[in-house]
Amino acid sequence: MILGRLASVIAKRLLQGEKIFVVNVEKTVVSGNPQSIIEENKKLLNLRTLRNPSRGPKIHRSPCMIFKNAVRGMLPKNNNRGREAIRNLKVFIGFPEKYKNYNVIKFEDIDAKNLSGKYVYLIEISKQLGWTGG
To answer: The pTM is what?
Structure first.
């Protein structure tokens, strides 16, 4: 699945009030040149405030939080509707056993097989940012 396209579909469904569980998020891809994508994300790690650097923007490294922040950016997070929508989203690495009985929906039109150019997996971006897989 392509990160941005999947995030936009999920954001729309969250605003309609659905509860969504995203599994195997590490297999999500980001389209574009892998080197430039990783460099852009590494630049974000160096952002700090001048007054108190420990209060600077917190950049998440895990694939779950990168995906969740992508969806959060597509929601109206400053009102109750958006906050309630983001609470209905759960993101997992792998496929947890307790969700095996749930209905699985796979979006064929936003699959990474349709990409003709370069792309990088979300797990590779996370590892380059320093995520240790914990």
So the answer is: 0.89
